[in-house]
Predict the 3D structure of the following.
Amino acid sequence: MTTTHTSPSLLGRLLNGATTLSRIAIWVAGCLTLLSALYITADVICRKFFNSPLGGSDELSGYAFAISVSWALSFATLERANIRIDAIYQHLPSRIAAILDWVSLVVLAVFIVFLTRYAAQVAGMSWDHQSAANTLLGTPLWIPQTLWVLGFIWLCIVLALMLVRASLALVTGDIKTVRALCGIRTSKEEATEEVQASQRFVQQERES
């Protein structure tokens, strides 16, 4: 009996920690994308006005984009930001909808595990062969590929935590928790978040 009550609490704390780390990761990913955009802008300006491009902007921006996406996926999954078609889903009974939510999380987890496996194989091959980009920079490919794979590995960890928590909730009949973890975001939830974001913006404007 103690284990039954303790596990959801422990998993809840782990998920909260994963959310915090994923939020940090998405900020870092956003900064990486911004730096990439600034570097491309500087490269274009130097090429246009000084006839002396910085070089490597296309290569580095490609690495930045791939790494940013892989690390941003965990936060998007936790926030249920992935797109799902809900034309029929929204008319289903809550228990059936919860089961479909759980199934969708399982399918997503299986897909990501296979994707991570093959991505790791690509990075491993680059390491084994000491492959380098066929560019002026000659970047060792295992470096950006490893950072890219680590984002997928973190996503696998997050999905595992979500799946265990959702499975326990489904078994115990906690439909609300299942839908909160892996259900489709309702229009009411999205509207509430938009209102809260607007209120935070207004508050920041007043304080500044």
Summary: The chain has a mean pLDDT of 85. The two ends are 52 Å apart (CA to CA). The longest helix spans residues 2-49.
